[in-house]
Amino acid sequence: MDDLEFRRIVKVDVTVLEIWLDQGWLLPQAEDGRRHYGPADVARAELILDLTQRMGVNDEGVDLIIDLVDQIHGLRGTMHEMLDAMERQDDDIRHRIRDRLDHIRRLRGL
């Protein structure tokens, strides 16, 4: 979707959208010099609206929260890659890894 459709769905004006883009809170795909937004951008915009309008979080707080969300998203991706790599190992290696994880959890009381 383009800027106009995105703004209609999210219900923000041009100025607000440009501020979000300048802040780096939204990072839409660019093609032929035009921005294209997807469902993840809409979800991110809804989070920004919740933070700023409903919760009263200031810009610095939004910066921090968006950064943390991005870090969590990155960590989830890394974890999926690690689990995939682990599942491709021989049974013996997979069992050793699981046993080691169970041992660590027990030590931490999890």
TrEMBL record:
Domain HTH merR-type: residue ranges: 5-62
Membrane spanning residue stretches: none
GO molecular function, a single term: DNA binding
Keywords for this protein: Plasmid
This protein's record includes keyword Glycoprotein: no
Pfam families, A to Z: MerR_1 (PF13411)
The protein's name: MerR family transcriptional regulator
Swiss-Prot/TrEMBL GO biological process terms: regulation of DNA-templated transcription
UniProt keyword Nucleotide-binding, yes or no: no
